[in-house]
Amino acid sequence: MRRQTRRRLTQNVSRFYLGLGIFFVIGFLFFGTSSFFFAEEAPVNETPINDAIRLSNGEIVTLHAWSYDTEKRTMRVRLSLDEVPGNTNDHLFRYVYKARPDSEKEVALLYERNDQYVLELADVPNDFNQLAIRIYGLDESQSIDTLTPEERENSLLTSLYADRRTIEQANHSSSDETTFARLFIEDELAETERQLEKAQQSVEAQRQQITRLDRDKEELEDELPYLSLDEQVEQENEIFDLGRKRDELTLELEKLEQSVVALEEKHDKLRVRLRELSI
Predict the structure, then answer these.
(1) How far is it, in rounded angstroms, from Cα 76 to Cα 63?
(2) pLDDT computed for residue 39 by the predictor
(3) 130-160 pLDDT, tens per residue?
(4) Which long-range CB contacts under 8 A does 49-56 form with residues at least 24 apart?
(5) End-to-end CA distance of the chain
(6) Domain of 257?
(7) End position of a domain, from candidates 175, 203, 219
(8) Interatomic CA distance for residues 85 and 59, integer angstroms
(9) Into how many domains does the chain fold?
(10) Do residues 78 and 113 lie in contact, with contact meaning Cβ atoms separated by under 8 Å?
């Protein structure tokens, strides 16, 4: 009887470990080969909005907005290019899909004024996934179609990337210059407000630091009568250093206050321009 009981226990234990081993094998096969059954999602690849990008020729490009109209299947891009003095290059825009990087397509220029551009890409499918705007810098005598591959690569200033998963949906019903100008002013106004807030915070922090220095200096001066001659000399040197530091902070504060005034004036002018465009 005991032998039969041991045999059953041994069989049960063997079955348990066998089942456990089969479970781990199946789990390993499933998770180890899951990439064959489930497509891995590509990482988001996009150019940050409102980040200034310095190009190889010294120019600075800033991407302001991407938008996609699902009904018209059009993509619109707003950007600005700050040209360097003496630059005579013309800018040419082309776009490509990630799946077909060698097949460039033309870009329509809807608006160009004061180095600000609105581009439109036509017939963009809803499942475009990812695409890139290529910006070329060409001489007046050059044509993009006649360049060698090496010349084409050397003329490429930068590429701006868009990802379907993060693109803004919009209705591209308006194409008048006033609308585009207003959008750029609104962007500049928002950026000026951010700069103004940051400058005001810096002014307040500088004032607080000067107040702390004044308080520390006053405390040290009040302690002087109770110190020995050697201690007084040492403390007076410390008071002098605090005074010199205060002078430096005061000069910095004046510059910060001037920048605040300049930003406030710029902010007011932008609001006036925005009101004028709305009339």
Answers:
(1) 11
(2) 46
(3) 999 999 988 877 888 788 888 888 889 999 9
(4) 50/187, 50/191, 53/158, 55/135, 55/137, 55/157, 55/158, 56/157
(5) 103
(6) 179-278
(7) 175
(8) 9
(9) 3
(10) no
- For the stretch 144-150, contacts whose Cβ atoms lie closer than 8 Å and that sit 24 or more positions apart, written own/partner, are 144/92, 144/94
Give yes or no: residues 62 and 157 share one domain: yes
| Residue at 44 is within a domain | no
**Tens digit of pLDDT for each residue in 69-85?**
999 999 999 999 987 77
Alpha-carbon span 53 to 89, nearest angstrom: 18
Give pTM, 2 decimals. 0.74
Q: What is the DSSP letter of 48?
A: P
Task: Look at residue 228 and give its three-state secondary structure.
Answer: coil
Q: What pLDDT digit, counting tens, does each position of 13-66 carry?
A: 455 455 555 655 455 544 444 444 444 566 877 899 989 999 888 899 999 999
